[in-house]
Design goal:
- This protein has 743 residues and is α+β, with helices and mostly antiparallel strands.
- Helix content is 15%, strand content 34%.
- Helix 3 (214-226) runs parallel beside helix 4 (286-296) and helix 7 packs parallel to helix 8 (400-418).
- The longest helix is centred in the middle third of the chain and has 19 residues, at 400-418.
- InterPro entries: Aldolase_TIM, GH, Glycosyl_hydrolases_36.
């Protein structure tokens, strides 16, 4: 039997599942089918040039009339999304692209399945590939080494393609296939997640910027704790290190941003952390600050900030006590793709003043000595910033990929040796040089689906709602005394823990290819799951976004319209897996802001209307049919953003006695009530974390409710089926209340 490949080049067309994705594919483009477990469904795009260079741009083919979503670096440090339908819409520095098409391999029909094809530009040897488009609607591969001395005339595994009918499975399978092919990074599922992810935190950055002091750290921790939202992890951000400003010439052309040329002069804390500012008393130093945080403020984890190169301007060459790092000045050279997007003031400064680059053969010694000292002070991990700067310094070191990999391997080796909880937050967005070189780093400050979990700071109610369902660490950076505790208590339980969702948040299928910031019609919908429920956050974020003309983020519509959309249980892509094989598709929906409870039949949807910067969180709980007359669904803590995150376990234990049944048909379980004097049909057993108002759906009024060992009062709304009770404050951290409900 002949098996036709799902991805092929036929007569100059790139064809996926019978649908032409690209036309006019040049003869120098090579398609190599994947082989081995996980790779067989995919293929690699390669290209051959007539001569060797350190930078190539290869046209791959014309893309027209197909919707796509891509993620691209709009500046050196950050990535955002772009939607389009043709090659010219693909921005420079595109690191991920998903294309939508129909499967025409069996002919086109009304029920022809949608096919999702992912394009992942990769690293090959010393070269990095990235996608971009041109005015002829051609998809291009930009291949570069970052070192003029490192040249090639070909790359056979530059872009990996994978296709299927479920976009989330396609992405997951593609990342795992690339992991197997490259052997240089690990999928998120194989990485150890640091324990701090489940605790609320405070970061000093926005509160103090580089003016942070030992006293300021104590003020911030005390302020949040006194308000009832105690931080259990702390990030001491930029401002604690010993640095020196290298800018001496006041007539220098570059003055704005010159602070970024400052360099590290020692691995220990600076003078601000050596004394108490108010009374000038000497203290032990960083160790004292950490001990105070842990012993007097019950902080569990303390992280400190440093740049991948040591500091923004690197390490000072031949600084006292640091001579053995063989640091030398290097001057950044940015990729044409980065230069074609948004310029950055940091790079303007470093291009003039240079960066003190620790020799890659000595960088492990640098990290290890720094981290060993921090660990001796009780520090549990590091937030590593300014990572993408290394891509600009590859000249003379084998190129950007080689230098980045050397630095990241040294960093991860030192973290493994000094911080056993895999204590590393990779700050800001990353280039693929770093993404495909990380085998340990599991927490990143932006959403890298399949590679990392995420860490996010909070700004306001709107953003807080989004972060609550992002599956990410949650920490704030408020000034001491400047907190919104009403808001924070929707995120943080009294013990300082948070209700974290199980996965990185993802856009729902129906808005994957819609632009929620610029198209004036689309709402953004993000789905996630908890252990027993699902959640969909809906946001009206129209009106502002990064502009490819002005090369910056701008407001393009000062008064966006009110928008209407809908949600349904199917928006939570894996809700059926959460519910189990016996689920019939019915769900109960709880809307966080409105407090509305609705029972949704299979396939039914619920309308949602939002003004700009409004949101709603819809919590979907699969309905459990206990008997012909009784159905039940847990909802969670009604006043928390991630309501369903409180429900950790849900079981139904049927009673031994035969349940009472109605004679004849009833149109709705709620339309006729069972007797309150009946024997219980079943006992619903739950494990719930937290305290406050707990809610569940029951089609019949429960007979009895118990929380812990005590029977408790409850309210029941026969019109909606909402069962509500109050869960007391637990005495233990992370305590899971046993709740029993007789129905």
């Amino acid at each position: 039997m002949t098996v036709t490949p799902k991805i092929s080049i036929n007569d100059g067309n790139l064809v996926v599942h019978g649908k032409t994705i690209l036309t006019g594919v040049p003869d120098n483009i090579v398609l190599t089918p994947g082989s081995g477990v996980g790779l067989a469904a995919g293929a690699f795009i390669g290209a051959i040039a007539s001569h060797s260079k350190s930078l190539h741009v290869f046209p791959v083919g014309v893309l027209e009339g197909l919707r796509f979503v891509c993620c691209f670096r709009f500046k050196l440090w950050w990535m955002t999304q772009r939607m389009g339908t043709s090659g010219k819409d693909i921005p420079l520095e595109t690191q991920f692209m998903l294309v939508e098409s129909k499967d025409n391999s069996e002919g086109e029909h009304d029920d022809t399945p949608t096919i999702y094809t992912i394009f992942l530009p990769l690293l090959e040897g010393q070269f990095r590939a990235v996608l971009q488009g041109n005015e002829r609607n051609e998809l291009e591969i930009c291949l570069e080494s970052g070192d003029n001395a490192v040249e090639t005339n070909q790359g056979l595994y530059l872009v990996y393609m994978h296709a299927g009918t479920n976009p989330f499975e396609v992405i997951n399978q593609a990342v795992k296939a690339v992991e197997q092919h490259m052997q240089t990074f690990l999928h998120r599922e194989k990485k150890q997640l640091p324990y701090f992810l489940d605790w609320f935190g405070w970061c000093t950055w926005d509160a103090f910027y580089t003016e942070v002091t030992a006293e300021g750290v104590q003020e911030g921790l005390k302020s949040l704790s006194e308000g009832g939202t105690p931080p259990r992890f702390l990030i001491i951000d930029d401002g604690w290190q010993q640095i020196g400003n290298e800018v001496k010439d006041m007539n220098c052309v570059v003055q704005e941003g010159a602070q970024f040329a400052s360099r590290l002069t020692g691995i220990k804390e600076n003078a601000k952390f050596q004394k108490n500012i108010k009374n000038n008393d000497r203290v032990i130093g960083l160790q004292h600050v950490v001990d105070e945080a842990k012993q007097h403020n019950n902080v569990k984890y303390v992280y400190v900030w440093h740049a991948l190169a040591g500091y923004w301007g690197g390490v000072k060459p031949a600084a006292a006590g640091m001579e053995h790092y063989d640091t030398a000045l290097a001057y950044p050279v940015q990729s044409p793709g980065v230069l074609g997007n948004q310029p950055d003031i940091v790079m303007d400064s470093l291009a003039v003043h240079g960066l003190g680059l620790v020799h890659p053969e000595k960088v492990f010694n640098f990290y290890n000595e720094l981290h060993t000292y921090l660990a001796s002070c009780g520090v549990d991990g590091v937030k590593v910033d300014v990572q993408n700067i290394i891509e600009t310094l590859g000249a003379g070191y084998g190129g950007r990929v080689s230098l980045t990999r050397a630095y990241l391997q040294a960093l991860e080796a030192s973290i493994a040796q000094n911080f056993p909880d895999n204590g590393c937050i990779a700050c800001m967005c990353h280039n693929t040089d770093g993404i495909y070189s990380a085998k340990q780093t599991a927490v990143n400050s932006c959403n890298l689906i399949g590679i990392c979990s995420t860490a996010c700071t909070l700004l306001q109610d709107y953003h807080s709602a989004a972060r609550s369902i992002g599956g990410c660490a949650i920490y704030v950076s408020d000034k001491p005394g400047n907190h919104n505790f009403e808001l924070l208590k929707k995120l943080v339980l009294p013990d300082g823990s948070v209700l974290r969702a199980q996965l990185p948040g993802r856009p729902t299928r129906d808005c994957l290819f819609s632009d929620p910031a610029r198209d004036e019609t689309s709402l953004l919908k993000i789905w996630n799951v908890n252990k027993c429920t699902g959640v969909v956050g809906v946001f009206n974020c129209q009106g502002a976004g990064w502009c490819k003309v002005t090369k910056k983020t701008r407001i393009h519509d000062a008064s966006p319209d009110t928008l209407t959309g809908s949600v349904q249980a199917a928006d939570v892509d894996v809700l059926a897996q959460v519910a189990g094989p016996e689920w019939n598709g019915e769900a109960v929906v709880y809307a966080h802001r409105s407090g509305e409870v609705v029972r949704l039949p299979k396939g039914a949807s619920l309308p949602v209307t939002l003004k700009v910067l409004e949101y709603e969180l819809f919590h979907f709980s699969p309905l459990k049919e206990i008997s012909a007359n009784i159905s039940f669904a847990p909802i969670g803590l009604l006043d928390m953003f991630n309501t369903g995150g409180a429900v950790e376990q849900f079981e139904v234990n049927l009673a031994d006695n035969k349940p009472e049944l109605f004679d004849g048909e009833v149109p709705c379980e709620l339309s006729t009530s069972l007797s309150e004097n009946r024997s219980p049909t079943a006992t619903v057993a739950l494990k719930v974390r937290g305290c406050g108002r707990f809610g569940a759906y029951s089609s019949q009024r429960p007979l009895k409710c118990r929380v812990g060992n005590a029977e408790t009062d409850f309210n029941y709304d026969a019109g909606t089926g909402l069962l509500a009770m109050t869960i007391p404050l637990p005495e233990e951290e992370m305590y899971r209340w046993p709740i029993e409900i007789q129905v």
